[in-house]
Amino acid sequence: MSDKMNRKSGRDYGFETRMIHAGTQPEPVTGARQTPIFQNTSYVFHDAEHAASLFNLQTFGFIYSRLTNPTVAALEERLANLEGGRGATCCASGHAAQILAFFALMEPDDRFIASTRLYGGSITQFGKTFKKFGWQADFVDVDDPEAVRRALTPKTKAIFVESLANPGGVVSDLEALAAVAREAEIPLIVDNTMATPYLCQPFDWGADIVVHSTTKFLSGNGTSMGGAVIDSGGFDWTRNGKFPGLAAPEPAYHGLNFHETFGDMAFTMQAHAVGLRDLGATMAPMHAFQTLLGTETLSLRMERHCANAKQVAEFLEGHPQVAWVSCAALPSSPYRALAQKYLPRGAGSVFTIGLKGGYAAGVKMVEGCELFSHLANIGDVRSLILHPASTTHRQLTEEQQAAAGAGPEVVRLSIGLETVEDIIADLDQALAGAAKA
Amino acid sequence: MSSPLTYSNAELLAILRDTRTIAMVGASPKWNRPSFFAMKYLQEKGYRVIPVNPGVAGGDILGERVYASLAEIPEKFEMVDIFRNSAAAGPITDEAIGLAKEKGIKVVWMQLGVINEDAAAKARAAGLQVVMDRCPKIEFGRLNAELSWGGFNSGIISAKRRKLRLS
């Protein structure tokens, strides 16, 4: 049964139709066409028996907004649909999404393999904070699938990569990595934040779980923090003894076996009923609403983001102050072939450049911009600029900074939807100022 | 017809609309077993569910008497819902085919993970509808938007105002 199937005609709906309609049928009580913001914590039970059924997960319904909320659920269904997954769990941020995803899979002393080129905040979360849960991240250069295979251990429970890496221009070979994961009988988790489901469909290439920071392109408006974990529904959690949280009696839920009870819905049920319940990193209903509004225009924004970014990257590649441009949209990129395979509609709008003037020039350029906002976000309609070495990546060692593509000379750009000539003119004057540094 | 198992929304909706009474083979009296979840939910949605389980025959589950076999159920029922493994689904389907006329059985429904192609072929040849590897609770919830409350992809795209069902 296709996820995209129309109930009446059986016809497949396109991405643009689903980004507007999936998860948001008119509200049945009032007929409200736009999704209401259920700014509400808790839900009245019909009677004690109904309450018992809800708490036992024997019926579908709402109990308390830490677990589920109608506005958040609408966004969850939309994202699950756009990624082609079975279900989604929204949460407070992209970092919360990563904790939720691993919380379902990991026991203390378990390990996972993560790309060395992840977003710096993820490297810190995985490498430092996760250790406090007894979870060990093994960082590997995932450009070499053989190196990933060699790093596998009996305790390894997942492989984690970004489809398109933040900050710059790196594309993961999802199909090859999915093959390694399949052989090891562990899931491949893909952070699809930078690409969005419009540009990349990780489940089509064998990924099992997708995570998002919805704060970025999905909302696009810079208003709302949020994260999402989407499960393909295709991974068999029972095939080995590695995933007791999903395929063995759960002590945190009266001995319920999620896989046996909910089949391919097990992961998403667990992420709500245990993950959100006990970790508490809930998405606010208002944030879900703002993010739903963003997804309604996702394809249009991503097309323009990609077109603007490509033009800006081409300009910068020819600029005398710029040593290099790391953007998978450029023919010069070593990741161009992977970008054409996995991101055929465009290679995103976040990329990095290296300045000949090093650290000082980076700081000067960022401060010299008039139109670009100097801040620590990406994927906004506004153009954004950041010098990672002095901000987001400053907690990392120099080696880690270099491995993550965030060395001292690196400036990260998130190209927005302004008039492209204005974007280019602003960078040109900022670079001229930086040259005088 | 063989796997891949695909069932249209219209086909599943028609089955769930036309069925009133379900014989649930493998129904468990334990609250945390999947069959107990499904039985309780389907009862709340207005279905009569008659449990079949030789191990607890003569007892009660959720207010319904438990029978040892389909043949022992005195009433008519349109659906047989099989909560047993794929091999066990064979003889149960045979029994359902033999009783189809007498009991008014129209549908053999095998639960999530239960797939028995030989049994399905025999049932179809006998004029019965067959669903395999699905749960009627989950499909009911999906087709009536309740699954969406848990963040699941119902696959339903529509700008129609849905008729309200109490739950």
Helix content of chain A: 25-40%
Biggest interface, residues from each chain: A-B, 55 and 42 residues
Major beta sheet, strand line-up of chain B:
2-1-5-6-7
**What is the helix tally of chain A?**
17
By helix and strand content of chain A, what is the structural category?
alpha/beta
The figure for the number of domains of chain B is 1
Please state how the strands of the largest beta sheet of chain A are arranged side by side: 1-9-8-7-4-2-3
Largest beta-sheet characterization of chain A: 7 strands, mixed
CATH class of the largest domain in chain A: Alpha Beta
Radius of gyration of chain A: 22 Å
Helical fraction of chain B equals 25-40%
| CATH-defined architecture of the largest domain in chain A | 3-Layer(aba) Sandwich
Number of helices of chain B: 5
**Largest beta sheet of chain B, briefly?**
5 strands, parallel
User: Which stretches of chain A are low in confidence, meaning pLDDT under 50 for 5 or more residues running?
Assistant: none
Based on the coordinates given, report the CATH architecture of chain B.
3-Layer(aba) Sandwich
Report the principal-axis shape of chain B: globular
